[in-house]
Amino acid sequence: MRRPLTLLLTAALIAAVLGLTPAHGASPPAPVRAAAAGDQPYASYWYPNTILDWSPATDPDARFNRSRVPLRPRVSDPALKANANARAGEGGVTALVSFGPTSNNPSQGSLAPHYYAFGHWQYVDKLVFWGGSAGEGLILAPNATVIDAAHRNGVKVYGTVFFPPTAYGGQIQWVRDFVQKSGSTYPVAAKLAEVARHYGFDGWFVNQETAGGDAALATELRNAMRYARSLGPVEFMWYDAMTESGSVSWQDALTSANDAFLQEGTQRTSDSMFLDFGWSAAGLDSSRTLARNLGRSEYELAAGIDTEANGYHTSVPWSSVFPAGQRHVTSLGIYRPEWTFTSSADRADSHAREARYWDGANGDPSNTTTTSSWKGLAHYIPESSAVTAKPFVTSFNAGQGDFYHARGNRVSSTGWNNLSLQDVPPTYRWLISSTGTRLTPSVDFTDAYEGGSSLRLRGVLDAANTLRLYQTKLPVAADTRLSVVVKTPAAGPTRLKAAVSFTDAPTAFTTLDLGSTTTTGWETKTLDLSAYAGRTLAQIGLQAAGSDPAYDIRVGQLAVYDGTVDTAAAPTGVTVLGSTDVSDSRKTLRLGWTPSATGSVHHYEVHRRNPDGSRTFLGATPNDAYFVPRLDRVGTETTTTLDVEAVSTEYGRSPVATTTVSWSGTAPGTNLALNRPATASGQCNASETPAKAVNGSVSGGNADKWCTLTTAKWLEVDLGSTRALDRVTVRHAAAGGESADWNTRDFTVQVRSSTADPWTTAATVTGNTAAVTNHPVSVTARYVRLQITRPTQNGDPAARIYEFEAWGP
């Protein structure tokens, strides 16, 4: 693309400096694949010649990159659009999103909770998994998590073919390699179709910006795309750069110089075109006319806007593409909406920015009034919903979290991200009406029923509040049930009703009372919808009514299903495909199994069995293979049993299938501080809690640490009982990827056996510069304390501790 592509071009320049970009005409190096049997699998990327050698039978990562979620159909009822200005059935949105680098992009999520877990799928039609660079690879296939999440929301996903400008390492020979022929076939194009079919995504975005081509090469590019489409199903989106003459000359419109890349006579070349950012009102108008003359829709053209640098501060001539009160002129193409994440300070800030970007300045898609020219996409685009078939279950799981819950029980205290587990987000974020004070809805990351988040509704309740959540198209049968899992601060009336409407009167809500709770834990309220059999649900929401000055309720799950909750058969043949010893006490694993023979499966969960009889969640996937990023040895165990169970689409759980992993070497003891209660003198922000220093992770980014700015700086861990300790390990700022200037300089380790005892110093450190420090001790204690007297090397006042470990037998 013509505008600076910071991520990709920087990568290309670095690669060139390091000598990674092949010399002109040379064969590019094959991308490095995970060679060790238990190593991390990554999203696939290639050069044109190296993709010819790709086969799912020989690529060890291929099995982990497959999506198992089919593209869902969507509904968009004009009567239910949130914003009166939005126009249904006209322009759509294509989003070009970078979820990570071209290389080393994990296939199935990771243990980093701070992640771009996009949550506004209702405004997007296509998502391009953006990437590619001269120094890594030009062809990038999307990873399974993004495909799964997008398809669950009815959004198509494209991979990227990126031929960079020559100034950034581009070589015209790579374009010629791309269109090489074997008889009447185009082998690289055939591979593109094969990859899309095998991994389960929908097409490719082709961005050819390398100079030096000619008309013959441009013709062959069109022929190659048409050939791949003939092998189908695979779609193409062409970027407005290379013209039919072969030169790179951005038109900012559909013109006679580039229209053959969309339609050539009776031949369909590509399925859509992304117009470069310099478009004008006149150019878009002429593009619409030309598209129609070619027999194509103007909405197959996407007018590009570049939000990578400035997000919703970007100046966009909105009236040129979405004129008020008139038909949309074209669709919209958004380059890098993940600015909302990359520019944010933490998860809360990221979510606030995403809401501003998509829903508007008021956090209400029905009210986009603002003095800013950026009104939010909800102002122009009506919501679409993939809630079109039963069962429908949401636990408001955002696809990331600081812990993992199953049926309301904490089964892991480790942070994570995995978009394959993201539930369909609410259609409306947020649409709440009241004649009194409006309650505040939010996705809450402090509690969950399933996954890492729940829906929270709180505030002053002084009048009925109706919260529209989902647009749906769900037929009601005689045995259809609607269940809602809730949690209240105290047992008593929920003051909450389920609110539903039907397609014969889509804006009129019928309410069903959820009654009272008897505990402060999660409780399931099941409602019989048989009285409405034969009708079709158009909306699902909630209504709070009554009086409460501090109303606070969590909704952990909402489900519509028929009959009783179904289960699936257990998977079979669980096998360790590969294991890598990180140390004597830690492994990474690749697991595989045969899918459940009967039943409909939403995902498979992987747990380890602990010596005390409990289980710890290790991860989950809709796939038949999963990479376990961390399996820790507990104590002196010589084997660990792993359970894999199927979770059905109605969230019933199957019996478990098991396999066993053996440990070799001498057990190094146990980190007795791992996931134990931790307190501290303070914290820098809401995400940098004391618990982050005992969660066993240093790889979750800047938020995966304890930080404090208090004058007295201390961190204390309760081991639960008096234990013998032989070592304390502290992982400082650089262990988590931050500057070594912030490694803790002066500190002491103190211990005591009860709160009535004085602290005893077990280790004193001055002048430390290391990222990780180990401190042999020989003490018996229940409480271990890190007392910091000089937090950094350069006078910065913040203490930053990524992990505080207390080791014993």
Biggest pleated-sheet summary? 8 strands, parallel, barrel
- Proportion of residues in helical segments: 10-25%
Structural category: mainly beta
Residues in β-strands, percent: 25-35%
Q: What's the β-strand tally?
A: 45
Strand sequence of the main sheet, in spatial order?
2-3-5-6-7-10-11-12
> For the residues shown, what is the average pLDDT?
94
The number of helical segments is 10
Please give the radius of gyration in angstroms: 28 Å
Q: Low-confidence stretches at least 5 residues in length (pLDDT < 50)?
A: 3-27, 30-35
The end-to-end span amounts to 58 Å
Shape: globular
List keywords for this structure.
seven-stranded antiparallel beta sheet; eight-stranded parallel beta barrel; mainly beta; 809 residues
Structure description:
With 809 residues, the chain is mainly beta. 12% of the residues lie in helices and 35% in strands. It is built from ten helices and 45 strands. The strands form eleven sheets. It has an eight-stranded parallel beta barrel with strand order 2-3-5-6-7-10-11-12, surrounded by five helices. Strands 37, 38, 40, 41, 42, 43 and 45 form a seven-stranded antiparallel sheet that branches. The chain is globular.
